[in-house]
Design brief:
Blueprint lengths: L5 E7 L4 H16 L5 E3 L5 E4 L5 E9 L7
């Protein structure tokens, strides 16, 4: 059972290993490195491989400004 979190969800249209790695690179460069509104709150993340050949990466986040992430 997972704890309740606020999740940042990133969806992309293919789930080849290269596409997943490129998505992670983009998330780290453009979302996680900014650190302006929220930070990662758990030691894990989720990758959902959907039946329509798309993928979602879910990262649990917490506000660092005292407000809910947008």
């Amino acid at each position: 059972c997972l704890s309740e979190y606020t999740w940042a969800v990133f969806r992309f249209e293919t789930f080849t290993s290269e596409a997943v790695q490129n998505a992670w690179d983009c998330i780290k460069r453009e979302f996680l490195s900014s650190g302006e509104e929220c930070g990662v709150t758990a030691d894990y993340d989720l990758e959902y491989y959907l039946s329509d050949d798309s993928c979602e990466i879910w990262i649990p986040v917490i506000s660092i400004l005292g407000k809910e992430p947008s």
